[in-house]
From TrEMBL:
Signal peptide positions (record): none
Superkingdom in the source lineage: Bacteria
CDD domains recorded: KdgK
Organism: Metapseudomonas furukawaii (Pseudomonas furukawaii)
Gene Ontology MF terms: 2-dehydro-3-deoxygluconokinase activity
Keywords: Kinase, Transferase
GO terms for biological process, alphabetical: D-galacturonate catabolic process; D-glucuronate catabolic process; DNA damage response
Sequence similarity: Belongs to the carbohydrate kinase PfkB family.
EC number annotated for this UniProt entry: 2.7.1.45
Residue span(s) of domain Carbohydrate kinase PfkB: 3-295
Name this polypeptide is given: 2-dehydro-3-deoxygluconate kinase
InterPro entries in the cross-refs: Carboh/pur_kinase_PfkB_CS, PfkB_Carbo_kinase, PfkB_dom, Ribokinase-like
Gene Ontology CC, one term: cytosol
Matching PANTHER family: 2-DEHYDRO-3-DEOXYGLUCONOKINASE, HEXOKINASE FAMILY MEMBER
Length: 306
């Protein structure tokens, strides 16, 4: 299966003393997907933009080392990647500070006219993106991109969507409108309850799932942190407990990791319950490490279940 993930990766500063890493929601998922699906014949692709500076070149080299296809990462001369700083409280919960308004990805998404290379069905069977991905587009370009996604889906492409909502990137009203269109054509939605609460004031996972299904979404996962996730679809409705963690170090990328393991499991033919169990397992491993990307040697594999 030819998978592409679309969004922005940035330089990450975290720790004390500060350490430099990289991360971004869809990049985190793409990289974990690439690790989990390394035996598959087609590499996972990432669609984004970077500058031509040493930091951007270093990120590209590291993505390629992980097996990602970077042919659709645009290089914009003279521009730079975005930057974010992470502060952690004693429980591992994070607070973000961003410097991304003039990032190469933000500028690229604001000006790209032709989405064909991104959505070419000869190269892409499934596209994964998030609310953050959509927020990178200014209004008219976002509508044009959503139109292009409808065409991609009409041609048989699959769409996978994570609602990641960041108020610093756009107004809630814009996000609600974009998500409404997105869910109507989404095959698998991975929705975080806290984000739905910010967007719609909804605190009930069952209602979140029902709304997504009624919008046209085929399969829904509602993530609730340490609480059981809710899985919903036309023929299933169940909860799957999260995996206990001895010590939470850093919650960065927990949801992104869950998404990667869930999707990799579904690609490999596992049912929703086993997919969610694998998602919880990887998320639990990730939050036991600092930074969005854990060492390859710490990765749990996909458990096929009993």
């Amino acid at each position: 299966m030819r998978i592409a993930c679309l969004g922005e990766c940035m330089i990450e500063l975290s720790g004390s003393p500060l350490e430099r890493r990289f991360g971004g929601d869809t990049l985190n998922t793409a990289l974990y997907l690439a690790r989990l699906l390394s035996s598959e014949p087609e590499p996972v692709a990432y669609i984004s933009a970077l500058g031509d500076d040493p930091l951007s070149r270093d990120m590209l080299a590291r993505w390629r080392e992980e097996g990602l296809d970077t042919e659709r990462v645009a290089v914009r001369p003279g521009e730079l990647p975005g930057l974010y700083l992470v502060e952690l409280d004693p429980d591992g919960e994070r607070r973000f500070f961003y410097w991304r308004d003039n990032s190469a990805a933000r500028r690229h998404f604001a000006t790209v006219e032709d989405f064909t290379p991104w959505l070419d069905r000869r190269r892409t069977d499934a596209l994964y993106l998030s609310g953050i991905s959509l927020a990178l587009f200014p209004g008219q370009r976002r509508e044009a991109f959503l139109d292009a996604l409808e065409g991609f889906r009409a041609e048989g492409g699959q769409l996978w969507y994570d609602n990641n909502f960041r108020p610093a990137l756009w107004h809630a009203a814009e996000a609600r409108a974009a998500q409404e269109r997105m869910l109507a054509m989404t095959d698998i939605a991975l929705l975080t309850l806290d984000d739905e609460c910010q967007l719609h004031g909804l605190r009930d996972a069952a209602r979140v799932a029902r709304n997504a299904l009624d919008s046209g979404c085929g399969e829904v996962v509602v993530k609730r942190g340490a609480e059981p996730c809710l899985l919903a679809g036309p023929d299933h409705w169940l909860e799957v407990p999260a995996q206990s963690v001895p010590r939470v170090v850093d919650t960065c990328a927990a949801g992104d990791a869950f998404a990667a393991a869930y999707l990799a499991s579904r690609i490999q033919g596992l049912d929703e319950r086993h997919a969610a169990e694998n998602g919880h397992r990887l998320a639990a491993t990730v939050i036991g490490h600092f930074g969005a990307i854990i060492p390859r040697g710490s990765m749990p594999g996909i458990d096929p279940g009993g």
